[in-house]
Amino acid sequence: MSLAGLGEAADEQWARQSVIDTALAMSVSGLSPGRSGNVSLRFEDMVLITPTGMAYHDLIPDDIVPLSLEGEVLSGKRLPSSEWHFHCAIYRARDDFKAIVHTHSAYATALSVHEKPIPPFHYMVAVAGGADIRCAPYATFGTEELAKNAVAALEGRKACLLGHHGQIACGETVEKALELAEEVETLAKQYVIACELGE
After folding, report:
1. Please, what's the b/e burial string for 17-47 (b: 16 or more CB within 10 A of its CB; e: otherwise)?
2. For every residue of 129-168, which 3-state class applies, written as one string?
3. Residue 185 CA neighbour count, 13 Å, CB half
4. pLDDT at 4 over 50
């Protein structure tokens, strides 16, 4: 293998490890308890995504699944997250996104169960790219319909809620996507508390 080839392989290993590190941080922070949620990173012309059914603390770089933008598994023995449809659909629709974090965080999920968006109750809502954080209509997990709904809810936005499901946060890096997911959960919590106090 050439020196250039070694460098590319090292870069991909680093990218795979960054997906694992983000998934672990997401779990430890409480944004997605257990095996829930998923993380992906656009690397060159493929998508690196967490596998389905594996605990994050058991993952090694070879477990991260490389997909084409159409969702074809390119190599390895693992199956991708069941939510690969919306990851790939979002990357196809948005060249500006390089990473996606999907969580089942408590307050964002509570709002999504009621199919409530997060309105402009606080100026920090703008970190998601607009005047509100939309909630996509409900669709069964792992379906093309859910992917379509997510892409629509993210138009002009970096984050959205998914009806009866959780939240999606996107960014230029996995670190920025995770940071946005944490901010969305904070805003969701603040909004729920504010609503409890009255109109």
Report:
1. ebbbbbbebbbeeebbeebebbbbbbbeebb
2. CCCCECEECCCCCCCHHHHHHHHHHCCCCCEEEECCCEEE
3. 22
4. no
Answer yes or no: 70 catalytic.
Answer: no
Whether 31 shows a pLDDT value over 70: the answer reads: yes
Residues 6+ apart with CB under 8 A from 170: 90, 94, 97, 99, 100, 101, 154, 158, 159, 177, 180
The torsion of the CA quartet 57, 60, 63, 67, rounded to 10 degrees, works out to 110
Q: What Rg, from alpha-carbon coordinates, does the chain have?
A: 17
pTM, whole model, 2 decimals? 0.94
- Using CA atoms, how far apart are residues 154 and 46, in angstroms rounded to an integer? 21
Which of the residues 8, 12, 70, 83 is marked catalytic?
A: 83
Q: Of 100, 105, 77, 102, which is closest to residue 88 (Cα–Cα)? A: 100
pLDDT digits (tens, 9 = 90+) for 135-183: 999 999 999 999 999 999 999 999 999 999 999 999 999 999 999 999 9
Token pair 């892409």 in the structure block, residue: 151
Q: How far apart are CA 162 and CA 102, in angstroms?
A: 10
pLDDT at residue 198 above 90? no
Residue of 73, 187, 44 whose CA lies nearest to 127: 187
